[in-house]
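We now fix the convention by which a protein and its fold are recorded. These numbers are not coordinates but entries in a learned vocabulary of local backbone shapes. A record is reproduced here so that you can trace the correspondence yourselves:
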Amino acid sequence: MTTKRPCALITGATSGIGYELAKQCASKHIDCVLVSRNIDKMNEIKTDFESTYNITVTPFQIDLSDETAPQRVFDFTTSQGLHIDILINNAGFGDFGPFDASRLERQNNMVRLNILALMNLTHYYVQPMIQKGSGRILNVASTAAFQAGPIMSVYYATKAFVLSFSESLSVELKPKGIFVTALCPGPTKTGFVENANLQRSGLFTNLKNTTAEFVAKKGYQSMLKGKVIEIPGLANKTLICMSKFAPRKLVRTVILHIQK
């Protein structure tokens, strides 16, 4: 009699932290459902992971900023008979520049992806987790979640939501056997920099950048331990700790100067 492998669903799984988190799961012999817009890359990952780790990888192509996408993802996995034991909400993007000069539709898409898609996917998948009495949810937030972020105002605000939402759920769901972790990386070397036009930001020129692999390992380990908040890297932990004791006016002014 063979034991059914656990299954993880990872959004934004084709690059950066999302890819490394999928790799962490695959290397532990966890089947993976990959959710992304890039079907070619997902198929490449499927071939690699299935041959390397002897697991099953199921790709699902979709744009999660579409309001109907979370329901369609859930309907797909349900139709395939896939029970999701681990939900990793990684998909998201940012934008660099003053809010008044930004494209409003891009900001709306950011809110739909970074907040609404994450919230809706969590709502759908937590129901069967509750029925089973176990589950893990890893939400990728950011060190941006701990303070306001001039010149990236909407992005920082979306990550503040992810952190607050995750902390609240960790309390609500723990008695039901479900553990929720917020992963809060600082500046990380991924494609996020180009997508958010962050080449000009001091975040990635003035601060030490870590690797997606390091962030994913720390996030995965903390998720297994049931840790509520994981801030990878001593420098990031130190900065967040200092910001908690500094006046908010000072913190947002410092962030502005770092960004510039």
About this structure: The CA atoms of residues 22 and 179 lie 18 Å apart. DSSP finds ten helices and nine strands in the chain. The radius of gyration is 18 Å.
